[in-house]
Amino acid sequence: MTLAAEGLFWSAGGAAILTDVSLDVRPGEFLGIIGPNGSGKTSLMALLSGIRRPLAGTVRLDGQPLSAHGRQAVARRIAFVEQQAETTERITARQAVELGRTPHLGALTPWSRADDAIVERALEAVDMAHFSGRLWHTLSGGERQRLHIARALAQQAPILLLDEPTNHLDIGHQIGLLQLVREQELTVVAALHDLNHAAMFCDRIAVMQGGRIVALGTPARVLEPERLHDVFGVTVEVERDSAGGCFIRYRRPDPRPAKLKLVAEAR
Ligand SMILES: Nc1ncnc2c1ncn2[C@@H]1O[C@H](COP(=O)(O)OP(=O)(O)OP(=O)(O)O)[C@@H](O)[C@H]1O
Questions:
Q1: The pTM is what?
Q2: Looking at residue 123, which CATH number applies to its domain?
Q3: Which of 10, 11, 17 has most ligand 1 atoms within 8 Å of CB, for mutation?
Q4: What are the phi and psi torsion angles at 124 (to 5°)?
């Protein structure tokens, strides 16, 4: 199962949001997308998932344009966890996860015990089985986020697109979730803000800046102090280990000039 973007362009409100974005996602890899706020990560994920169409360029799934696949066929192959996916429906945690089975159901394939088992496994995988009867609106942000992931796992699609999947999660669940996703051996594209998580879990990282991909490669190649300063405006040291891994240590910025202090000294 392959996913590729060629020369994507997308604009909104009269401004270019994505320009000439090309990307080959290798089967089975965990590809991270990093970049500052507004650099286009969510927009790119929306085009890769097919929920938005590019104004130029093509997203290909198994060599065919996404638009040539039916919606259900795409949903069987690509599961997408959006950044701010919410529901106002009065549903339980379990029902939210059951929605992941929708692409597999039809007149000739009604809900079965196999679907129940898949949903239960997905709930257990994200540590939410004990909350399966709870109503959605009573759940915390982190609990909802784990259910979104469970819904995507229950979809059993070979490609998983995750837009900031660790949002709202405590550090234990952040690392647990990325490890869980990694262990599924799916093809994963995940927009991530935590550069050390990207370094720990990604096979490759694409760096976005101003709607373009400005670097793409292994974490050790991409996460370089000069690039991180240029893209994020932060000063870092990158520690590298003998196994090819890397760790980013942030440096505290120099103090701002007094005239830039937001609250004048009254005392
Ligand atoms: N429908 C829209 N209309 C106008 N501008 C939009 C629209 N969607 C996105 N944008 C703009 O496009 C730019 C990229 O947005 P996008 O959400 O893709 O960035 P991002 O990298 O995911 O940011 P963040 O890290 O803050 O989630 C932003 O400046 C955003 O304001």
A1: 0.92
A2: 3.40.50.300
A3: 17
A4: -65, -40
